[in-house]
Specification:
heterodimer, A: about 750 residues, alpha+beta, Aldehyde Oxidoreductase, domain 4, Aldehyde Oxidoreductase, domain 3, 4 domains, seven-stranded mixed β-sheet, 28 strands, about 25% helix, B: about 160 residues, Ubiquitin-like (UB roll), DNA polymerase, domain 1, five-stranded mixed β-sheet, 5 helices, about 35% helix, globular, binds FE2/S2 (inorganic) cluster
Amino acid sequence: MTTEFKVIGTKPIRPDVIDKVMGRAIFAPDIMISGLLHGKILRSPYAHARILSIDTSAAEALPGVYAVITSKDLPQTPADNAELKYSRDNFLAGEKVLYEGHPIAAVAADSIHTAEDAIKLIRINYEILTPIMDMREAMKENSPKLHENIRLKSLGQDNGRPGNISLHVQHILGDPEKGFAEADEIVDREFTTTMVHQGYLEAQSSTVLWNPDGNLTVWTTTQGAFSVQSEISRILDISLSKIRVIPTEVGGAFGSKLRIYIEPVVVLLSKFANRPVKITMTQSEVLKATGPTPGTIMRVKMGAKRNGKITSATAELYFEAGAFPGSTAGGSPRLIFTEYDIPNGQVDAFEVLVNKTHVGAYRAPGDVQVTYSMEQVVDELAQKVNMDPIDFRLINVAHEGSISISGTIHKKIGAQQVLEAVKNHPHYKSPLKEANMGRGVAFGYWPNNGRDSSCIINVNSDGSVTLVTGSVDLSGTRLTIAMQAAEVLGISVDQVKSSVGDTSSIGYTGSSGGSRTTFATGLAAIQAAKDVINQMSIRAASLLNVPVSEITFERGFFTTSTSSSAKLSFSELAGKLNQTGGPITGKGNVSPSSWGAGFACHIADVEVDPETGKVSILRYTAIQDVGKAVHPTLVEGQMQGAVVQGIGWALWEGLFYDTQGRMLNSNRLDYKIATFVDIPHIETELIEVPSPFHPFGVRGVAEPAFVPPTATIANAVADALGKRIYSLPMTPEKILRTMDVID
Amino acid sequence: MSKKKVSAKINGQPVEFLCEPRQSLLECLRDVIGITGTKESCNDGNCGACSVLLNGRLVNSCLVFGVEVEGREITTIEGLADWQGLHPIQQIFLDRNVVQCGYCIPGIIIATKALLDREANPSEERIRSWLSGNLCRCTGYDKIVGAVKEAAVILAKEKGV
Ligand code: FES
Ligand code: FES
């Protein structure tokens, strides 16, 4: 099949990158419009407090200030709509502030400095309340409650009691206790992780122009223009038709730009100031008040027979929600144990409210944490039954038809192929054993995603085409989608001008997330390209004087079965569209219900410095089933970037708070991410097991690559130390403590 | 706040602008002069997104005041290419598909130029340590290091080193 591709699998240059290397690409903070005002948000210095009064008069009186808003300027929320109340409260706090950095008021002024001066003039009286910073504390019966109206929704039932646990979901397969009784070895461990930030460089930034007729335009950095449009509509009670959202280039997102944080505030400021307004968050605001991935407490127990077969697995997973309900807790049970074929098991997941910023999505959300815990237990079990860790995983690996504990039925997957590739990889076979060195492997799964996508293709008279989709391009999807259209149209990819539309120029398209874009919007492009070919076949039939049923399109030519000489090339026919009925636009609207899951397995060698506790990564290899790599360089780039983010999570990253709920590392110096010197070359191997749900076999690639790294490093560090650290990040301090160098 | 007049050379052109004493060079470039290729991220000297050359030396423009550049020469990302084409460093970054979101890229290209202006053949270790003040969250750095090595070879050839 592979040999048939002309475009898929090649490595053309991304069309958007010329602007990016020249400094010409327009990111959200670069938007300039005449008359632009600058906005600034006043944020709570306290993690938990009641707002007794707000006095904005001095700010309003400051010269250069055009508008000051508070929660009073939001629409009234019906008392029975708690969900809407939570959403609105996170843009501008109502009665209470629930985390340090919680927005309270906002100002628009003629310069950012005037706006900063103005928010200092806003007077607020607080009644300071005890913050709840720890999940164990939050779950105690007599702990202060963040919200009076939250009742535990346990297995779909409201238990009637207010508390800080907002959700409990459960999945059971077979008989977990019987499964453990059959096991020869059981490992039962508890793990904790802290909140981690996506750490993108471009802060949230939005510019809004509100017109007195009620129409408004929003330029913003987002993973999905349509979700920004519907959120503004929901929060501010404005009709969708009045809101046009134009997505800018996006300076990193990784899930963080699925949810919005400032847009409704900027809309209101623009409305009251009657001028365009821009807000760009600072890094400190980003770290304190956008949605990181939740911290967790995870108890994982697995049992296996001496022959290596896993008989039972259970997990109790606690996820921080932050200040408001809504987290990955509900979906996490579908992500743990799914790599393996296990006959019995139970997973319980809980969501717990604490006085921290409301959590959001970070690349393979929830999956990194649960895999970090599970894959260490798997390693310990493999040791107990005296097996090579890859052999042990191969005995238990899921196949087509396997049913996971949470009910996922696997389709055609490349899980086994990935593990076999690890076994055969020179890295895995290479010797390693000097003092303080260790090797780890870990295996991971991400389901990938489908969802709605729209695409249109217009045919130009010279045989080139323009292609528009609604998918925001985070790192090359304009190209990978264009390549799929080019493959169908039989033209070269540089004949496809590919761009991202806005909410007024293209049909509804879900956000770029869940590793769905190249897959699902690719399907929309393929459908649009086929529509173009169908419409052009009709024109070809009329020009060649044959019924359309006799026209076939192959390798760039429209031919007839009756005459071998009568044929028209794509570009020839494109030049004749105006004489044969007018322009042609092909369209594709898809909502795929099935897609191919991604599996990845990584190998890491580390060295621990016994004096400083520093972990160095000596060698790292990432192996992944990518379905079909549309653009192998871009796929590799996704894998390498994911690994480096994962190394940071494993070793340094975390949001740290004091007992009063103040963040201790809300800047780029103290929230350390990996630099050029912290990591080695990352080796990659792409396995291609085509997905049956895409004509070219495409699977999502960006998230599966992020699932194994933390567990891989944890297993490598455990191998080096001969002891395990059961929490993240594995800082030098924790390492020295584990080595008994310090107490 | 009263504004000061500053005269400087930006990308070879003499420029005069008015700025408040509290405004950084980064802010002056982006908000006063209106060239936005230089990016802001941390605004406190810890990410390198705002890298520019000041009299040929690599600086974080968020840490320099606008009033400090009086009489000095500044090179930003906009000053590297001309109508005949891209600077070789830009060309290699483009050709090798090293870019992901691209937000860090102007800063990394400027920092790379500063390195290759002074050293013809830096080792991988030297490249990594020189660029360690420039953060990138997307790429894992791997392909950027490769591109810098290639750019070094091309530039050395051009200079006949
Ligand atoms: S913005 Fe200047 S170093 Fe980060
Ligand atoms: S490419 Fe996104 S930060 Fe470097």
